[in-house]
Amino acid sequence: MRYVQSLLDVVYPPVCAICDTPLAGRVGLCGCCWSSAHFIQGLCCETCGAPLPGESCRRPLCDECLATPRLWSAGRAAVAYSGTMRDFVLRLKHGDRLDLVAPAADWMSAASRQIWPDDAVVVPVPLTWRRLVHRRYNQAALLARALAKRRNARFAARALVRVRAPAPSGADRTARFAALDGAIRPHPNIAAALLGRNVVIVDDVLVTGATLTATTRAAFAAGAADVRIVVLARALQEA
Ligand SMILES: [Zn+2]
Ligand SMILES: [Zn+2]
């Protein structure tokens, strides 16, 4: 195995996940990208993981989650979707950079430690098969599988299915929520894996939360006892 790894290092020497600077060790980011990445630490919103100023309080919520209470009970994000981390997420999503899954799952595992439920089943936000064929992989499923492994949890890849594509990007908040109504459903045979379980839904980015809301609804329709969410990146409103 070690031989295979050193052979891989010769063929594909480890490089920074964002800027391609060669790396000495097997870490995901070079020092420069690491220091400019916005990892979310300290006080954050209990349901979407957005960083919050100030001291801890019992159940801190951001303005968005106060205005639109989430269907899920808790959520965390590893990084803010901006700057170098936006590049990282886009490379993972569209750039065939599957080597980015491992460091991303490490960050998500650390970020979700406080809210991770006992006896969890991890489920990705599903893609339509059409999108899956086009992209060849579902980045949310890769992140979900790697996260489940790190947390010793069950992984139910296809318990929820997507029957319609999401609203086009650029659609406003209301249109996004409306387009997703009924678009994600429990799989008729596999969704029994979620019955009575603590479900953790995984996605790459949380923007409005419309997709995660539709996925949460489907998890409850499948009989989930509780639903939490973990995302790689939280898109924050410009201050
Ligand atoms: Zn770099
Ligand atoms: Zn929030």
UniProtKB/TrEMBL annotation:
* Phosphoribosyltransferase domain segment(s): 189-236
Q: Which Pfam families match?
A: DZR_2, Pribosyltran
The Double zinc ribbon domain, residue ranges: 7-66
Q: Which Gene3D superfamilies match?
A: 3.40.50.2020
SUPFAM superfamilies in alphabetical order: PRTase-like (SSF53271)
In terms of CDD domains, this protein maps to:
LIM
Q: Which domain of life is it from?
A: Bacteria
Q: PANTHER family from the entry?
A: DNA UTILIZATION PROTEIN YHGH
Q: What is this protein called?
A: ComF family protein
